[in-house]
From TrEMBL:
It comes from Corymbia citriodora subsp. variegata. The lineage of its organism: Eukaryota, Viridiplantae, Streptophyta, Embryophyta, Tracheophyta. This is riboflavin kinase. GO terms for molecular function: ATP binding; riboflavin kinase activity. It comes from the Eukaryota. Residues 123-254 form the Riboflavin kinase domain. Transmembrane segments: none annotated. The keyword ATP-binding applies. GO terms for biological process: FMN biosynthetic process; riboflavin biosynthetic process. Keywords: ATP-binding, Flavoprotein, FMN, Nucleotide-binding, Transferase. Gene3D superfamilies: HAD superfamily/HAD-like (3.40.50.1000), Riboflavin kinase-like (2.40.30.30).
Amino acid sequence: MALASNSPKADIEAKISYHEGWKESFSVVIGGDEVMTGKPSPEIFLEAANRLKIEPSNLLVIEDSVPSVTAGKAAGMEVVAVPSLPKQTHLYNSADEVINSLLDLRPEKWGLPPFQDWIEGTLPLEPWHIGGPIIHGFGRGSKLLGIPTANLSTEGCSDLLSEHPSGAVYFGWAGLSARGIYKMVMSIGWNPYFDDKEKTIEPWLLHKFDEDFYGEELRLVIVGYIRSEANFPSLESLIAKIHEDRDIAERALDLPLYAKHRDDQYLKMP
């Protein structure tokens, strides 16, 4: 692997020195001050290929900006784009693939060894927490989809949410202090089918409740990732996919790897 950045070489090395194992992961590190012209010129990628002693056509570029995607394609390489700005995928049409986040990167698509950490259609994550009072959503969960969600407000959560990919389907455990702890699957993002303008947090508690509980405090422990949000040709196909997500989460949460987080103290806090 090579790291090719428009940043000065000294800045790159300083940044990666703070992360154990990063420097050793790259056979080649090239800064923008080591080439005549930075991206979108292909020069820096061609220099990386030269130092790796690999033909450009045999290299895969992973990038987050439009100029860098342009540079990778001009170098004759295949490019996976991970847009740095949400809902801007249309700007990355020249890439060979556009993915929502690095969680969606599948190396085997490109003839590389697959990641070994996916388990039964799920990707384990370092658990993280979010909570708040249940709010009214768009009113489409129960009425239109037949899937009652217990929505949370994104207000005051921007810092936390910025640490985790949006436009994604996660799963984990949900705690309602007066009711109990339940399996849940959730989306965070802008539902592409409905073209939401605002980011939403929409957990589906996998239990049949007899009444609404708006205003009650909901605590979530997110333990794994399933997929990125996607658009669908019909409402029926969207509903079918959501039910597939439910089935994946139901099975996964019975695995010891995920089941142990049911005892997370965050779920039981008053």
